TrEMBL record:
GO MF term list: RNA binding; structural constituent of ribosome
Protein name, UniProt field: 60S ribosomal protein L18, putative
Coiled coil, from the record: none
Location in or out of the cell: Cytoplasm
Family matches, as InterPro entries: Ribosomal_eL18, Ribosomal_uL15/eL18, Ribosomal_uL15/eL18_sf
Keywords: Ribonucleoprotein, Ribosomal protein
Taxonomic superkingdom: Eukaryota
Stretch list, region Disordered: 156-198
Domain Large ribosomal subunit protein uL15/eL18: start-end pairs: 2-191
GO terms classed as biological process: translation
Family in the record: Belongs to the eukaryotic ribosomal protein eL18 family.
Length: 198
């Protein structure tokens, strides 16, 4: 007799149909891009709408260096022409202090960190919002959709069973303090005896 595998057929993909965010700006953008997704045949607006609905952990941030690498690969910068492509990020754009020189880029994002905005503007680039993007490129023409790594979070490193052979997950280790210090461990030149009140 075979084993009855119950529950396997019940597993279904979770699809969001609305946001749980209380941010009024994001709610307005969702309305705008839902309208554009219905009215235009462009798939760009549909993807932006789906990403706006996602949770914050699924809207991972991206660094300026990563955007610069991708845009350099495309070999298109604002210096060459005013109609340079726009890097679109449905999330946060963060600065990278390791990059001494940043090329002039046009970037659209939900939020820019203070230093990232300063770096883009100082390089002769442009920081755009999504409502500005809807006016410039309503169909998503001349844009590149980018997103950050979702696995970059600290909590992802703890996923899985730590200590299992072949597992690289980080254990939730607590600070053991005095019990592992020198003088408490055996074979460390001396052994301190525990003090007892009499």
């Amino acid at each position: 007799m075979g084993v009855d595998l119950t529950g396997i057929s019940k597993k279904s993909r979770v699809i969001r149909h609305h946001t749980y965010s209380t941010n009024p700006y994001i709610k307005l953008l969702i309305k705008l891009y839902k309208f554009l997704a219905k009215r235009t045949s462009s798939g760009f607006n549909k993807i932006v709408y789906q990403r706006l609905i996602k949770s914050r952990s699924n809207r991972a941030p991206i660094s300026l260096s990563r955007i610069a690498v991708v845009m350099k690969r495309k070999a298109v910068f604002t210096a060459k022409s005013k109609k340079a492509p726009i890097a679109v990020v449905v999330g946060d754009v963060l600065d990278d202090v390791r990059m001494a020189r940043i090329p002039a880029m046009r970037v659209c994002a939900l939020r820019f960190s203070k230093s990232a905005r300063q770096s883009i503007v100082a390089a002769g680039g442009e920081c755009l919002t999504f409502d500005q993007l809807a006016m410039i490129a309503p169909t998503g023409k001349n844009t590149y959709l980018l997103r950050g790594r979702k696995s970059g979070r600290e909590s992802v490193r703890h996923f899985g069973a730590s200590g299992v052979p072949g597992s690289h997950s980080k254990p939730h280790a607590t600070n053991r303090g005095k019990e592992t210090k020198r003088g408490r461990r055996t074979g460390q030149s001396y052994k301190r005896k525990a003090f007892r009140h009499v």
